[in-house]
């Protein structure tokens, strides 16, 4: 492995590139390419797996560290090898990208060993997982916020012209150095792809690499020699980001980054330009709108025309379509115990439409967007504090300006891309779009549920959970002075994210709080009716079983710690007991990082443990192994 920060410049092709795109992701007949019934993009090994997905939430270093513990436990239980999907946002994407694309070390070494609490002496904490490719060691060595922020400020005050692209942003470079360089995944001149497809998708990327001096980072469903003890299967990775349009009611629009394609599923024609409705090959991301515009096959155009005339269709992508969601759920048979109603629309005529894809187009990228930029975009969490507008504030918040065009009308512009937390911080919506009926959601909660005075109190702090039930409260002390969430009115934010019936939220709150009070892992398993949500391109009328695993203090685990570690943990945690919500934790984390960088030292710095502030970006070596074994109790 190499940790060198010396990397080539971003790849800007001299000639247009030919690549594929998919249209109709906002339609009920659409099947996602990796598991489609037919087509070159299908990965047969995924079809052999159960319809199970794992979602790792955002939350900065807290999410990356907790996610490592969760993935280790699931790996030890042989769950990761059985899952079809691993989705993530923000800090969870630091882990997801390295886990899914690296082939430098075996997965067992990457994930590291589980240490029971009895073994976590302070000496052991300082020594644990410091090498051998362990991601815990990478986290402990990262410390990215201060240099990343300093570089972003410098970039922001360059001489800028309207719409000018500065290339790979300072934040993405910092993320790449911290989390990808240790696994040789940090090249500026790179793209991503997937092996194991029916057609020669991976070979096409390899050919491009040979011709264009472009590195290709490949997701391989199976790692290691087949049949060997080091062989292991990995789920298909999807990282969340958002297209940021500050002058629109929704502000942030979901985009997905995967090895096979990149795009925004839901289609919105009330934005300028219209966005969404499909995907492009990774090398086609950051291209201007194709000229001339592609001609869609007549059957697809006819299908679009039919749903555009239907109030429950997603072609409008407007408030009106989402307001009709309850009616749409009834029409689709909401409450059914299977997903047959939602799948039926993708059969017969729908399958014929899918056989007409992908479609091909030729365009010239300003530069090919590397993996580091995708991960940097997914984790530019400062945008959760406000909606940046101008070029300078975009740079200050870690956003990147890239070319984008939708796959319905082919209109586009240079747009800002930012953290996916404002679109779906838990990264559960990609799984619901794919109708995955069993999901493990790993929530790196920032608020202590034991300190909440009521379900509504915790809902205000953890709006990333409550809004999925339409239950973010109308007012809350953690909201900003305009009583909005990331600049979006509360009612609209609830409508934008709601995918489950509202009554499920209180049940989740009390179940998680009760399991926390019992001293063990904080979790809840429940079955929900999936609601249609046009903002998310999610079709309801089926049921999903969700296992929620939530970050919380686990007293039984702490009671088993060696005396010196327990005392150090209690002392360090005292000043961080008050809930302050997502934004408050971010501000507090920046302050903590500055103080720790200035003061140095290897002490167990665990203020608020396990609710380490989202913005804290300089973990002491002892904090990483101390933090993730908490959630490794999932295996017990």
Short description, anyone?
The protein has 636 residues and is α/β, with parallel strands linked by helices. It is 35% helix and 15% strand.
- What share of residues are in beta strands? 5-15%
Morphology call:
globular
Rounded Rg: 23 Å
Low-confidence stretches: 2-7, 156-165, 225-229, 310-346, 580-603, 625-636
SS field, number of helical segments: 26
How is the biggest beta sheet arranged? 13 strands, mixed
Please estimate the helix content. Answer: 25-40%
How would you classify the helix and strand content by structural class? alpha/beta
What's the multimeric state?
single chain
Layout of strands and helices, then pairs:
Elements: E1 17-23, H1 44-47, E2 52-56, H2 60-76, E3 85-88, H3 91-101, H4 107-111, H5 122-127, H6 135-142, H7 145-156, H8 170-180, E4 190-194, H9 201-212, E5 215-219, E6 222-223, E7 232-233, E8 236-244, E9 252-257, E10 262-264, E11 278-280, H10 298-308, H11 319-323, H12 325-331, H13 340-344, H14 349-354, E12 359-363, H15 371-378, H16 391-396, E13 400-405, E14 412-419, H17 421-424, H18 429-433, E15 438-443, H19 455-461, H20 463-466, E16 484-485, E17 488-489, H21 490-497, H22 503-517, E18 523-529, E19 543-550, H23 555-559, H24 563-573, H25 581-599, H26 623-631
Parallel strand pairs: 2-3, 2-15, 3-8, 4-5, 15-19
Antiparallel strand pairs: 1-11, 1-12, 6-7, 8-9, 8-14, 9-10, 10-11, 13-14, 16-17, 18-19
Helix pairs in contact: 2-3, 2-26, 3-15, 7-8, 8-15
Region (Disordered): 325-349
Protein name: PLA2c domain-containing protein
């Amino acid at each position: 492995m190499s940790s060198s920060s010396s990397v080539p410049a971003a790849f800007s092709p001299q000639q247009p590139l030919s690549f594929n795109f998919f249209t109709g992701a906002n339609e009920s007949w659409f099947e996602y390419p990796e598991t489609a019934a037919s087509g070159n993009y299908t990965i047969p090994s995924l079809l052999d797996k159960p319809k199970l997905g794992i979602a790792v939430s955002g939350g900065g270093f807290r999410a990356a560290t907790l996610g490592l513990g969760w993935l280790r436990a699931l790996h030890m239980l042989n769950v990761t090898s059985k899952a079809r999907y691993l989705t993530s946002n923000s800090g969870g994407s630091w882990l997801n990208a390295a886990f899914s694309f690296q082939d430098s070390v075996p997965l067992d070494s990457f994930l590291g060993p589980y240490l029971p609490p009895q073994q976590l002496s302070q000496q052991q904490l300082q020594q644990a997982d410091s090498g051998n490719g362990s991601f815990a060691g990478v986290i402990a060595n990262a410390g990215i916020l201060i240099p990343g922020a300093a570089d972003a400020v410098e970039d922001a005050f360059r001489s800028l012209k309207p719409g000018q692209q500065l290339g790979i942003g300072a934040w993405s470079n910092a993320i790449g150095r911290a989390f990808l360089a240790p696994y040789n995944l940090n090249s500026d001149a790179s793209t991503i792809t997937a092996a194991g497809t029916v057609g020669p998708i991976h070979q096409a990327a390899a050919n491009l690499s040979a011709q264009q001096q472009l590195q290709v980072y490949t997701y391989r469903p199976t790692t290691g020699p087949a049949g060997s003890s080091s062989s292991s299967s990995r789920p298909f990775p999807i990282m969340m980001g958002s297209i940021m349009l500050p002058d629109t009611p929704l502000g942030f629009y979901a985009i997905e980054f995967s090895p096979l394609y990149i795009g925004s599923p839901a289609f919105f024609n009330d934005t300028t330009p219209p966005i969404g409705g499909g995907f492009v090959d990774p090398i086609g991301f950051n291209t201007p709108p194709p000229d001339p515009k592609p001609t869609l096959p007549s059957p697809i155009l006819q299908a679009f025309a039919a749903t555009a005339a239907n109030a429950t269709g997603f072609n409008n992508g407007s408030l009106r379509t989402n307001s009709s969601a309850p009616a749409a759920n009834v029409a689709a048979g909401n409450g059914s115990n299977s997903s047959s109603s939602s799948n039926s629309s993708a059969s017969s005529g729908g399958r014929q439409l899918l056989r007409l894809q992908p479609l091909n187009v030729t365009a010239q990228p300003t530069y090919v967007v590397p993996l580091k930029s995708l991960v940097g975009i997914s984790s530019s969490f400062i945008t959760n504090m406000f909606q940046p507008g101008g070029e300078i504030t975009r740079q200050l918040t870690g956003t990147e300006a890239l070319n984008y065009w939708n796959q319905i009308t082919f209109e586009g512009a240079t747009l800002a891309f930012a953290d996916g937390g404002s679109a779906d911080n838990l990264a559960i919506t990609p799984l619901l779009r794919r109708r995955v009926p069993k999901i493990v959601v790993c929530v790196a909660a920032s608020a202590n549920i034991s300190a909440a005075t009521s379900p509504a109190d915790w809902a205000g702090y953890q709006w990333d959970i409550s809004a999925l039930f339409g239950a973010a409260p109308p007012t809350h002390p953690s909201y900003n002075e305009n009583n909005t969430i990331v600049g979006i009115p509360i009612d609209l934010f609830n409508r934008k994210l709601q995918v489950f019936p509202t009554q499920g939220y209180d049940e989740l709150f009390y179940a998680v709080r009760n399991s926390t009070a019992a001293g063990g892992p904080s979790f809840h398993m429940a079955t929900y009716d999936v609601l249609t949500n046009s903002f998310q391109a999610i079709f309801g009328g089926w049921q999903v079983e969700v296992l929620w695993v939530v970050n919380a203090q686990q007293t039984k685990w702490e009671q088993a710690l060696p005396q010196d570690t327990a005392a150090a943990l209690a002392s360090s945690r005292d000043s961080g007991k008050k809930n302050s919500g997502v934004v408050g934790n971010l501000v507090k984390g920046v302050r903590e990082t500055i103080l720790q960088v200035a003061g140095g030292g290897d002490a167990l710095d665990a203020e608020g443990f396990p609710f380490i502030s989202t913005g804290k970006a300089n973990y002491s070596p002892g904090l990483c192994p101390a933090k993730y074994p908490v959630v490794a109790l999932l295996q017990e």
